[in-house]
Recover the amino acids of this structure.
């Protein structure tokens, strides 16, 4: 009986798909014994003309041994003057989103370093494409082709997606043109994966593989709700793929078309997630929201009246899940946009209106030089993580701006780009804090974040 029950449920689900697809088709569905056969063919036929394959050619500079910068070595090995380059080729996918103007959305990494871009349709038509603009922070790029009898996919609403919704992916996996896969939305709002600077991914088990990047993720109405971007794992699909929500991708596209780049604004705050202990300390019951840990002097946030210890719970009426969610919501705003923030302060809910400001310098030099105050850190230039940095909003610590290769800091293992999270188990966010602890200590136990990894470094 249990087995029959499962089969019945699966059959019911498939026939529900068939009913959805049939409404989009002018041809009657196939039947066996008077029973309609389930099929997604009507949806696939609807989206196929708007999904394209993308082929690129380009050049990248080859990293050389420093010895080859010496003219003697170059002559000895017969190397040409100037940088050595190699030709690159790549394949990916894209989606026509504006047939009238010939705009195609794809991933930034699909067209990176491309000198030539060719867009290929299912009917074998080929168009040379112009790169309108690309944003590596969200991995979105916009191409323009000749608007000759194009079909654009209708834009859906990724905010309306629910976990468990059926989705269809189409693209060019492993160079296999216009491949279709079916799955569900496995999760929403995936962040912290380290794939992009701004992350708010749709997770799906619809099979996504190399070459699917930039392709379409659509709902059963044939509406574009995501741009397939990444997979978890190496080499191929394991049932965990990620797509950029179309609402985010379309906002980026509008700026790329208008300005050729994203004019990303900032509030000027450091933020972190809430946990149970912090929620209790700040007198709130829920863990949703982003805790403000620092307000940058002279920033838009300071002008609006935001304070350290505020908990931002919504932006323009849209709930804020965590720090990454707030960073995404503000990062998609343009400079000069006015936002309405709902903030919990001392247990009370208030509303703050802020105008998104211009980005400031990514890093700020330390007020004191460790060369003069602590010989164990000699040779390191320290700074704060400022708005505009890819680390901003994702990690709290002191940024190592530069390290003299012949210095004590370099011999201890510090590298430029490291983030010092704590010193002697005490969290630090400002160079002054770090140096104050270091000056009073015989040895330094540094907790270092380097890329996606963290480790401890002991300096005597």
């Amino acid at each position: 009986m249990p087995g029959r029950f499962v089969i019945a449920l699966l059959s019911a689900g498939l026939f529900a798909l068939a009913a959805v697809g049939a409404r989009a088709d002018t041809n009657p569905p196939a039947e066996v014994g008077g029973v309609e056969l389930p099929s997604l063919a009507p949806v696939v036929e609807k989206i196929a003309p708007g999904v394209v394959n993308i082929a690129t050619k380009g050049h990248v500079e080859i990293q050389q041994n420093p010895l080859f910068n010496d003219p003697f070595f170059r002559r000895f090995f017969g190397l040409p003057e100037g940088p050595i380059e190699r030709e690159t080729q790549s394949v990916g996918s894209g989606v026509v989103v504006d047939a009238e103007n010939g705009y195609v959305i794809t991933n930034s990494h699909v067209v990176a370093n491309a000198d030539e871009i060719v867009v290929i349709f299912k009917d074998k038509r080929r168009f040379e494409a112009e790169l309108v603009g690309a944003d590596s922070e969200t991995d979105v790029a916009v191409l323009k082709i000749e608007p000759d009898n194009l079909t654009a996919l209708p834009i859906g609403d990724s905010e309306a997606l629910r976990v468990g919704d059926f989705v269809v992916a189409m693209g060019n996996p492993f160079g296999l043109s216009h491949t279709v896969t079916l799955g569900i939305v496995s999760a929403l709002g995936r962040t912290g994966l380290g794939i992009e600077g701004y992350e708010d991914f749709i997770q799906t088990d619809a099979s996504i593989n190399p070459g699917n990047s930039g392709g379409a993720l659509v709902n059963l109405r044939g509406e574009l709700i995501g741009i397939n971007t990444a997979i978890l794992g190496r080499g191929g699909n394991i049932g965990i793929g990620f797509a950029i929500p179309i609402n985010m991708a379309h906002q980026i596209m509008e700026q790329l078309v208008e300005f050729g780049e994203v004019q990303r604004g900032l509030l000027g705050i450091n933020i972190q997630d809430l946990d149970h202990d912090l929620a209790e300390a700040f007198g709130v019951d829920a863990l949703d929201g982003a805790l403000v840990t620092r307000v940058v002097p002279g920033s838009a946030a300071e002008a609006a009246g935001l304070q350290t210890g505020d908990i931002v719970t919504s932006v323009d009426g849209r709930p804020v899940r965590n720090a990454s969610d707030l960073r995404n919501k503000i990062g998609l705003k343009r400079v000069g946009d006015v936002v309405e923030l709902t903030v919990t302060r001392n247990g009370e809910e208030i509303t703050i209106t802020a105008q998104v400001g211009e980005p400031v310098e990514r890093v700020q030099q330390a007020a004191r030089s460790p060369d003069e105050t602590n010989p164990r850190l000699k040779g390191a230039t320290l700074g704060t993580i400022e708005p505009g940095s890819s680390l901003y909003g994702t990690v709290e610590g002191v940024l190592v701006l530069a390290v003299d290769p012949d210095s004590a800091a370099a011999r201890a293992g510090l590298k430029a780009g490291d983030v010092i999270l704590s010193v002697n188990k005490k969290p630090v966010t400002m160079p002054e804090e770090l140096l104050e602890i270091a000056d009073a200590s015989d040895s330094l136990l540094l907790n270092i974040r380097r890329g996606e990894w963290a480790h401890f470094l002991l300096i005597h």
Notes: Residues 232 and 240 are 6 Å apart (CA to CA).
